[in-house]
Write a sequence for this structure.
């Protein structure tokens, strides 16, 4: 299971990636709670629930490790995962955080209602993001595709360590 | 009134409206039900958005204790899930076992049944759709009127009235959100060409109050429909159950699961056997007349298990039906970049009907514009990183909608329910004691040519949406598995002729003279409509005519 420090770091980085700001204390706690983190407000979630976020192979773990280095890395890793690893632990964790953020007070800013904006402006902004996404995806593919080829199916380091301990 | 006690099994829409009708006539009624209860509404005055700051732990409310409400990548492909506040509807008691092939059945053991999670669509069957029933609209019409008076149905006499006959006590429609209003405006502009293609739009009929009715308040547009209407303006059968409980001649026996009934040598039901959910010895209930209204699948299981326990025979009930549903998401180009309205009615306000050549085979769509639903299930399906997806969803939120396209079904012998030996019980072995010797087995296969029919109907829906200024993103239409609509019917159908495993026009079994089937099991045809309103009306008709 992830340590508290790892989860806190992940939550901080992923929150900065998704909404451009640090997570509120409540968000960080709920994120840890979902992973079965100790010190949660309520009773820990069952082991099977927490396992939904565990890395399933070496590539899954590596992708997560790279993404947690900082928001720019998260962006790169998520771009790749959105195409080639949609069910990876990284995507699961990001979707979990998105779900937590949209369940919180609007001040967290994740899905505040937009002011009415001309459709043309939105389309232009969308195209701009699309233009940025394409090279990012390309760079991500150069970095992660070989990694995926090498590490897919390999035992993730955390599971290996716990196996050795046993 | 003197007479023998009527035992009703279940507390869903059929059961409660049957019970209320006979209680008013003075009959003594015992209702047997597992009866998981709805929890009290959290902060009932708060809007959905306000809940996020009003509740001490909003994430637990929206996502659940174990975060089961977070729909993660790889979860079965639906665009929404049942929220934690409605978990009680799908809780199952020990001993409930089902095996299904080609069918994904839903069961509820809650007070009010599956309709505790319905979206309140109320669509009367037309005369053509009642062709296979042993009665006509003229006989059912007054019962629709009565149910509408009881529960409050809103709607309009518009173009969809060609598919849904008008009935009495129709309240004025609910307030439209901006997106729905725009769609209707566009329809008015393009009506001629759409009608020429056999497409009609209009207001859906919904059992949600647009003005106060008794102690229930009109909808206050809090945006909480999916999480459970806190003001009970959206009707659920638990409200009628509460009404029944006020009668001195009504006994509610909750916490028991009916397994079977016993009958004598001349085919009269004598006793109903139920297992306490909390454990313990089975209990017996004397029944003057027994009314099965536990939902088509559960009622069928009780019927089959009664025969099995008496004779050891594993019988089959053919003719199982359900509406095939396809979810077609769309983007309204005129609303890109616009703000969404969180303070609005969350479920469908508009519907569409598509003619297919045969009036019985018309296709019905319920149009839901996105207001306060969770968006993370949509975001994760977009082919880009989540930050970009969040930007897109934020700017497209007001423009998003979904059509739930329903298709009719007909009874076919190859679709059936039966029992299978379970937990070591051998076929043919007569089970005498408690326990769970058999389980329900459901077999369903779609009709030949279904794919082509679905392609044509979805094509017609897409063309109509395009005419209204919307686009359907390619590859996003989702065919729901059979069973997902929970409109189950047909296993003990009403029949004009007396034959085994069928009922009279009044739901009276042709196999057991004091047994009545008052739920969807007795329907001999399933049009492309939510059947709940007709379930309620038919139960009233049976209670009025046969009791």
């Amino acid at each position: 299971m992830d340590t508290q420090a790892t989860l806190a770091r992940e939550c901080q980085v992923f929150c900065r990636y998704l909404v451009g700001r640090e997570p509120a204390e409540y968000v960080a706690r709920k994120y840890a709670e979902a992973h079965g983190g100790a010190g949660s407000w309520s009773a820990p979630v069952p082991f099977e629930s927490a396992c939904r976020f565990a890395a399933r192979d070496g590539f899954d773990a590596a992708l997560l490790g790279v993404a947690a280095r900082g928001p720019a890395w998260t962006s790169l890793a998520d771009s790749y995962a959105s195409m080639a690893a949609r069910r990876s632990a990284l995507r699961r964790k990001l979707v979990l955080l998105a779900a937590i953020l949209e369940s919180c007070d609007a001040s967290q800013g994740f899905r505040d209602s937009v002011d009415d904006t001309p459709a043309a402006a939105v389309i232009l902004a969308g195209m701009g993001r699309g233009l940025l996404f394409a090279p990012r995806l390309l760079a991500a593919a150069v970095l992660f595709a070989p990694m995926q080829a090498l590490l897919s199916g390999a035992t993730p380091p955390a599971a290996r360590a716990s196996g050795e301990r046993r | 009134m003197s007479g023998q006690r009527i035992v009703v099994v279940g507390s869903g829409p059929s059961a409660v409206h049957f019970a209320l009708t006979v209680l008013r006539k003075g009959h003594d009624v015992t209702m047997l039900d597992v009866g998981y209860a709805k929890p009290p509404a959290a902060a009932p005055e708060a809007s959905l958005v306000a809940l996020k700051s009003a509740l001490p732990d909003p994430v637990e409310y929206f996502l659940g204790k174990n975060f089961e409400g977070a729909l993660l990548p790889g979860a079965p492909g639906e665009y929404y899930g049942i929220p934690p506040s409605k978990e009680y509807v799908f809780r199952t008691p020990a001993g409930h076992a089902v095996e299904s092939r080609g069918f994904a059945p839903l069961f509820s053991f809650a007070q009010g049944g599956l309709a505790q999670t319905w979206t309140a669509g109320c669509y009367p069957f037309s005369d053509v759709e009642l062709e296979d029933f042993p009665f006509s609209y003229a006989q059912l019409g007054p019962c629709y009127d009565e149910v509408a008076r009881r529960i409050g149905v809103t709607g309009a006499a518009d173009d969809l009235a060609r598919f849904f006959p008008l009935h009495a006590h129709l309240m004025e429609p609910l307030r439209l959100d901006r997106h729905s209003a725009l769609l209707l405006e566009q329809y008015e502009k393009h009506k001629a060409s759409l009608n020429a293609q056999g497409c009609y739009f209009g207001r859906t009929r919904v059992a949600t109050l647009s003005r106060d009715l008794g102690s229930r308040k009109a909808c206050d547009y809090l945006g909480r429909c999916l999480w459970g209407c806190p003001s009970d303006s959206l009707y659920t059968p638990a409200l009628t159950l509460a009404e029944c409980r006020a009668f001195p001649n009504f006994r509610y026996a909750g916490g028991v699961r009916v397994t079977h009934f016993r009958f004598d040598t001349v085919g009269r039901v004598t006793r109903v056997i139920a297992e306490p959910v909390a454990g313990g010895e089975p209990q017996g209930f004397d029944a003057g007349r027994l009314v099965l209204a536990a939902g088509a699948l559960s009622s069928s299981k009780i019927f089959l298990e009664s025969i099995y326990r008496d004779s050891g025979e594993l019988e089959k009930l053919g003719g199982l039906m359900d509406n095939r549903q396809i979810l077609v998401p769309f983007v309204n180009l005129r609303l890109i970049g616009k703000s969404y309205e969180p303070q609005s009615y969350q479920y469908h306000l508009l519907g569409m009907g598509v003619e297919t050549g045969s009036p019985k085979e018309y296709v019905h769509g319920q149009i839901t514009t996105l207001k306060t639903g969770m968006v993370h299930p949509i975001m994760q399906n977009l082919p880009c990183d989540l930050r970009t997806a969040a930007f897109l969803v934020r700017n497209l939120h007001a423009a998003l909608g979904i059509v739930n396209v329903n298709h009719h079904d007909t009874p076919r012998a190859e679709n059936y329910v039966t029992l299978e030996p379970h937990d070591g019980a051998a076929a043919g072995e007569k089970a005498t004691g408690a326990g769970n010797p058999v389980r329900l087995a459901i077999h369903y296969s779609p009709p030949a040519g279904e794919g082509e029919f679905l392609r044509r109907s979805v094509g017609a829906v897409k063309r109509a949406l395009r005419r209204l200024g919307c686009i359907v993103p390619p590859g996003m239409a989702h065919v729901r598995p059979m069973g997902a609509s929970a409109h189950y019917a047909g296993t003990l159908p009403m029949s004009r002729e007396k034959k085994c495993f069928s009922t009279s026009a009044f739901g009276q079994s042709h196999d057991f003279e004091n047994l009545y089937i008052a739920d969807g099991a007795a329907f001999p045809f399933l049009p492309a409509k939510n059947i709940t309103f007709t379930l309620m009306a038919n139960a009233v008709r049976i209670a009025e005519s046969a009791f």
Notes: The longest helix of chain A spans residues 119-151. The mean pLDDT of chain A is 84. Chain A has one domain: 4-165. Chain A touches chain B through 54 residues (CB under 8 Å).
